[in-house]
Amino acid sequence: MKILIKMNKKLIFTLISGLASAQAFAEAKIQLSPVVVTATKSAVNSFDLPVSIDVVNQSDIQDAQLKMTLSESLIRVPGITAQNRSQFSQDPQISTRGFGSRSSFGVRGLRIYVDGIPFSMPDGIGQPGNIDLGTVKTIEVMRGPFSSLYGNSSGGVIQLLTEDAPKTPEVSTELLTGSYGTNRQNIRVGGTEGNVEYLVNYSNFETDGYRKNSDAKKEQFTAKLKFNFTDSTKLTMLANWMDMSAQDPLGLPRSDTTSGDMFQPSAFSSPKGVPNVALLANTRVSRKNEQVGFNLEHAFDESNSVNLITSIGKRENTQFLSVYSSTGTSAPTNRIDGGRASIIDRDFWSGELRYNHKGLILSRPYSVTAGYSYGEMKDARSDVTAYGGVVQDSSNLTNVNRDEKDTAKNNDKYVQGQLSVSETFDLHAGVRNTKVNIKVEDGLVNLTKDFTQAFNAKYRDSSGNLSYEKTTPVVGAVWKVNPALNLYANYGKGFETPNLIEIAYDNTTGTGPNLGLKPSESDNYELGFKAFPNDTTKLNVAAFRTNTDKEIVVSQSGAYAVYNNAGKTKRQGLEVSVDSQLPNNFGLYGAYTYLDAKFDSSFTSAGNIVNSGNYIPGTYRNQLYAEVSWRAPSVGFYTALEGRYNSKVYVDDRNTESADSYAIFNLRTGFQQNVSNWRFSEFLRLENITDKEYIGSVRVNDGNSRFYEPAMGRAWMLGVNANYRF
């Protein structure tokens, strides 16, 4: 940790010394930190945990927001990179402390949960696009070593907690319209009847998109039922359905995004910043997802309880991709409208049994949680040639590039606990054993008996099995210096397995899975403090370092991406957040992240040497979010000015290209009125009010050098909501 402390030594020790010496802290009127469940799997005040964990409140998730992607609200969390891609064919880019930054499809390196139900698959890939943000009341975001207690690929944990049903029946509707043909309609019904609580929400969203070839439509339905059988036994059911289609405008090469040395999206040579191959191949996605989960809670007494959490779901995903490269060549033919249809039909289910116990040892309180979790996913995967976005005849085997069944399973056992050693010192520890099994069953080799095709690598038997297992311990401690200052430290092992996308191919011609890919392993360190400088201000500071071995990276790229294990990487940085309630109903919030994420050894990628010391692509060295808000409760008015800064970001392992830094500002404002049983609200949101031209997200290591996704210019959004309470 010497480098880490040296890096920000002056800032850290100045803050700690000043805070610790202020005797007034012990007598201050403390504003309570939020209660969280993610870190310990039971309700605990976040101030007393040796963990970096932040909570995003319902007002920040729903007030004057589109409520379509997690990036809208996660930008305010330190340590999190959440990029809005200005298109909906891919999930938002979300990473934490550099974990997940390489992802172009889905979210990797983080575990995602809704009310304890996993929205990440056993192989580690997550799909946050399935989540209905219109029903979410809080988001807990945990970073650092304790994330490993959630298993493989848990560089961080994002847990969304849905709203409770209202005590009396109510119905509400919301209408939203905005720039680029954006519209959303929403209706919800909720209430309590006897021992049953219910909340049902439906939304319909569509947009023409900022860029050409970026139309999107999305329908979502969520139902939450809670059965209170007795005071000690409760069952919660959460069901969701999603159906969407979206065009994919692809990324742009630097030649289409630059004028001189500065990015100029208005000077794009392609129509509205879209490469012609996106139009020729009609790149797009259609996606359906259905999932239902159950959480059974039973308390035997005040000291012992159990949870049984189960879920089952189905996902259908068809993605049309272009194979025409930026250099004017294409595969498998010379047709410039050449493409592929990648089709996944997935069934998945999971279960977790958890036992919670608390008591006293030598008059000191302790708690223990132990559990077992299981998950399984079965993918029927195919890859078929497409021209102009039309799937070619799959009965002709020359058009079939892939036909297989993939299975991934996880079996996990864990135990974690906390002991209050004294009034001012708490010890936390845990361990988790994770085993992930992956099986590939190649059906393509069995489709033909043709002797000549048997010698084609395309028809070789690509079946195989992989098994990964790791035990990851974690330990942390909290020193309660006084009621307004806690110091903490922790350490833990990390474990990230390859997912089914990353093991899909062992070469750029698309033949055979990559059965030699290894999981990456990490050592994670963290120091920090949590403080109340006064009775209306909260301050959190965390310094961290992560050393990773066998980092998973793109080794080859072309029509198919091939992944490999690099050597070592090093991530170190600082996270600071401050939340202050000022006089006259003003509020001030800020979150800063410094991240120094580099390769710590050289390796070969796409036939080129990547030097030790290069920055990990997709990671921003400096990120800042700041917000000044004001409320006038007497008239139901609120407003806030948001500012966001991101430093430049490299787009490939060799650091040959980068997207420039940028700063943007957003404004949100709204009114609320109560008239008898009615509650009305109106809101306005202005995005990028200075009309800044910038690259909002990047496609890391894109094989055709189409790295850049331009962000929207100035945009507006206007909405109204009406709620009737019976």
Q: What is the mean predicted local confidence, pLDDT?
A: 88
Which architecture name does CATH use? Beta Barrel
Count of individual beta strands: 42
Give the overall form: globular
CATH superfamily: TonB-dependent receptor, beta-barrel domain
Class computed from helices, strands and strand pairing? mainly beta
Count up the helices. 5
What share of the residues lie within helices?
Answer: under 10%
Output the radius of gyration.
25 Å
As for the number of domains, it is 1
Q: Strand content of the residues, in percent?
A: over 45%
- Terminal CA distance: 59 Å
CATH topology: Maltoporin, Chain A
Q: Describe the largest sheet.
A: 22 strands, antiparallel, barrel
Query: Residue ranges: pLDDT <50 for 5 or more in a row?
Result: 1-7, 9-30, 259-269, 326-332, 451-455
Oligomer category: single chain
Highest-level CATH class: Mainly Beta
Q: Would you kindly provide a written description of the structure presented here, covering whatever features stand out?
A:
- The longest helix is centred in the first third of the chain and has 13 residues, at 9-21.
- The protein has a 22-stranded antiparallel beta barrel. The protein has a 5-stranded mixed beta sheet with strand order 3-8-9-6-7.
- It has a single domain (2-339, 353-725), classed as Beta Barrel (Maltoporin, Chain A), CATH 2.40.170.
- Helices cover 5% and strands 55% of the residues.
- The protein is mostly beta strands.
